[in-house]
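On clarity, I found the account of how folds are encoded harder to follow than it need be. Since the whole study asks how a given chain folds, the encoding of that fold should be made plain. For the editor and my fellow referees, an illustration may be useful. An entry of this sort, consisting of the sequence and the corresponding backbone structure tokens, reads as follows:

:::
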Amino acid sequence: MVKSAHLLMVIILVAVHGPGCAQDDLGAIQRAADQGDAAAQSKLGGLYYLGQGVPQDYKKAAKWLHIAAAQGNVEAQGQLGMMYHEGQGVPHDNAEAEKFLRKAAEQNDVTAQKNLAIMYTSGDGVPRNIQAAVKWFRRAADQGDAGAQRSLGNMYENGRGVPIDHVQAHMWYSLSAVQGDEDAIKRRDGIARRMTAAQIAQAQEIARKWKPATNGDQLHGQDKGAGAHRGVHDDR
């Protein structure tokens, strides 16, 4: 989980902050951060983390991310969570990692939701809790994340934290497969061979009617079945 989550965080930081940072932009970001702008503080922390426009410095990254996170900045909270998990610029502290990831996840940050789910699935730094893993995979899947949808499908296929339900599994695999997830395609086709034509048709109909949740329309882990849903890879 550590390597994959770390890579996921770096990819997101690059996507947010871009491949480089001009000195003029850096100066503006620094001034805004000094004036208390949480978004600028989070961005500055990300630049120090990546070493973009400034020397890479995990401690300075953590400093600015802490300041931004204290103001409720979701990106900073999620990044800090993984830095505590990996001991980058801060002591390795699983309790702090879980705390910051949960803060971001509760603000519907998909990456934090998936990282929490993976931690709970494997017992990585937290007590193993499959029900909690299902909750956070579902929260991310409800927002349309392909990886979380595939993982949730796997939970239903194997009865991990939820009753075995091939219709639900097929539906979630299908939603992930539509986004090009090759593993989900294989899993959907595999489970279809163990389903009746009526079950497949039911799963396909539910998938067609599915809509992603908005931030204010999350189900908060309720397991009402796919018909109620709007919308990290760990399939162990």
